[in-house]
Specification:
By secondary structure, the protein is of the alpha/beta class. 45% of the residues lie in helices and 20% in strands. Bound molecules: adenosine-5'-diphosphate.
Length: 498
Amino acid sequence: MKVGSAEDHITVLIIDDEENIRDGSERILTKASYNVLKASGGEEGLKIVKNDTVSIVLLDLKMPGMDGIEVLEKIREYDETIIVIIITGFATVETAIEAMKQGAYDFIPKPFKPDQLRITVNRASEKARLQHEAEKLEQEKKRTLTDLDTEKSRIHTILTSLPYGVVVTNTGGQVVLMNTAFRQLLNLKPDKKTGNGIEHYIPDTALCSQIVDISKGKYVDYDDLTDYEFSLSNGTYLLAKGQPILGEKLECLGAVVNVVDVTSMKMLDKLKSEFIAKVSHELRSPLSTIHEQLALVIRDEVSEVSENEQHILTRAQEKTRGLISMIGDLLDLSRIEERLICQDPKPVQLDQLLKSIIEFLGTRTKMKNQSLVLDLPKDSLPIINADPIAMESIFGNLITNAINYTPKGGKISVKADLAGVNIRVKVIDNGFGIEAKYLDKIFERFYRVRKEKTRYITGTGLGLPIVKGLVDSLGGFIEVESTPGKGSTFTVLLPING
Ligand code: ADP
């Protein structure tokens, strides 16, 4: 049907061989705001139908040449939504009924009154309008369905092409969507259907219960959601990260979990650690020998070593000492990574351990004219089960750093207390401090902050990675707060029942 926009007037075509009927009808309909076109015969009428936007045709049945029934057929063939009203003389009522059967909408017997024509055409025009509305709605529906289909297939294509696994759960923790990569990573059969609980797809209980919690909206703070590493029985290491899917009112609709294969990274890391451990091990004995021999030459009062040579030898000895200490740190790190440390936990009384470290380091603080105080709670701290060497290494490193990175005359204090299920130890100094941008980096291997004031302080950049590795393997937590020029506070939390 050819109906323009709502503001457009409906076009009515009058096909009649009687001029007075054409003109009379035109007057009546023009007054009623219709667009009127006229044709004196069937051929001419059909041409207009094809060239103009005609909605209603008033068609005389009895015309010379092509008769009304034939014209009606041709109009219906061309566009069956055009509404045809038959105009007929009394004698041809039967033919008019036949025309109705063939799809004419209504008929008006000749002669007709203006009102009769207006009412009939108005009714037809209302039908035209409704037809047009219905057509528009149908088109809109089709478009929406096509849009939805396109959107769905677009999301599907994006998900399928992602290199990492994606799985989506509803609020009950049931899988509603998973991509090909997820199936492949988790070794799921190609015909494995969605719809079951997440535990039917991921063989790690802790991860599944975390995903169920996320799906139920138990995690409000995204920062609480950490990466989760797990392994499959075929030796694959996977890293998963989940997050809630939020609706418009921020209500939780489920969870989306990304899964990445980190096996090659793990292998590479292992190879790197093994290589470092091997090289360090091989270097340690010859270096120790050189160090001892240098000491012999320096101590030997009989040999003719000039003062200048003595100075060079002492510098060489300092360097070898530095190298030996770095090798020791590297070997410690490899042992931590291989989880060879903290394997033999013993009851540790932290008060005693801290006292003895402070006593031992006291000589260094005296040389720098620094104060080093230990602040313990009145009641002794609960005994924790941990590797004593690991504990000594953690606090020895932190307190040595505080001494090293605090100028002469500075203050260092070590405070230990109970914090819920943890023992909390703070190592506080009023030294050089660390700029915020370096706070994460200092826990990386070999990372040393290069600043004018600390340039001359020797070190390997391995102390804090060792501390972090040990704290992690004890199930603890370490954090640092610092203000440049004012000092730093390193806080360690160790679980009592670790
Ligand atoms: P190292 O002390 O051998 O350089 P660490 O891993 O122990 O290695 O420390 C890394 C860096 O962190 C140090 O080089 C130093 O710049 C910074 N740092 C560590 N502890 C402190 C501290 N208490 N105050 C200021 N800076 C510190």
